[in-house]
Amino acid sequence: MGPKRRMPLLRWSFWRLAAASRNINTTGQIGDGREAAVVDYVLTNARAGDIDDVVATIDKFAYEKSILINVGDEKGELLDAAVRRADPSLVLELGTYCGYSALRIARSAPKAKVYSVELAEANAANARQIWAHAGVADRVTCVVGTIGDGGRTLDSLANDHGFASGTLDFVFLDHDKDAYLDDLESIVDRGWLHPGSVVVADNVGMPGAPKYREFMRQQQGTGWNTVEHKTHVEYQTLVSDLVLESDYLG
After folding, report:
1. Residue 230: which H helix or E strand, with range?
2. Active-site option among 177, 183, 241, 245
3. Which residues, if any, are the signal sequence (predicted)?
């Protein structure tokens, strides 16, 4: 791995990302066009219908063109393993971005239906193009909204997509870090989880989800069993991160 891959401080796209936190929180995008650019890059360079090649092409873009804020290749392997362990039929992802993590989930659980909730319509449109190119659009669906919108998105998942008591096998949290705990509790309150459901949370170390981490520590052995995976922020090895993998005990 070359120095620009290991140390993002050497890359202009990192500094543009660092200056764009307000954009990310309000629009879901960095603000310099990299999200649209990765769609064009995938459509031009990845083999249609080849999910492995689409994932690899997104990773190549993130290393060689512009850093992306999806889960990335290193943490993606942790996500893959958790999905395979859960062997889910129904998956809920919070935070679609460019559709990368949903691709990894769909690849690891080829029989699952994956629903990804995204606040930004532009991100949803980008992700749908990438999913279609990868050949998974029939089993990966983006729902535009947020869990914290007064119940509208939760109602849509229930009424339009069949979410019901005990049906949800796997949840991936990779959206607003301050909303992790509240949104998970809203899902639990709906009764959709069952004993053995698995929840994976990205970026618990950086930028951090301290309320969520503390909750899982307090619930250890009673409501949840959690493993903390030490890893790195996406697409570099300089900055550390944590991914939490939690089994729901009911």
Report:
1. strand 224-232
2. 177
3. none
Contact 198, 47 (CB under 8 A): no
> Is residue 174 annotated as part of the catalytic site, yes or no?
yes
Query: Closest Cα to residue 75, out of 203, 213, 171?
Result: 203
Answer whether residue 115 shows pLDDT above 60.
Answer: yes
Domains of the chain: 70-248 (3.40.50.150)
- Report pLDDT digits (tens) over 28-51: 777 789 999 999 999 999 999 999
Tokens representing residue 8 in the block = 């993002």
- Whole-angstrom CA distances from 241 to 13, 63, 94, 133 are 20, 18, 19, 31
Indicate if 177 belongs to the active site: yes
Q: Is 50 known to be catalytic? A: no
Helix (H) or strand (E) holding 75: helix 72-86
| Catalytic-labelled residue, pool 93, 169, 202, 245 | 202
Selected catalytic residue, list 70, 93, 203, 245: 203
Catalytic residue among 59, 80, 93, 174: 174
DSSP type of residue 44:
H
The kind and range of the H/E element at 172 are: strand 168-173
CA distance 193 to 164: 9
Q: pLDDT tens digit string along 63-102? A: 999 999 999 999 999 999 999 999 999 999 999 999 999 9
Nearest-angstrom CA–CA distance, 153 and 147:
6
- The question of whether 234 is a catalytic residue gets the answer yes
Q: What is the pLDDT of residues 193-209, one digit of tens each?
A: 999 999 999 999 999 99
* Catalytic, out of 93, 234, 241, 245: 234
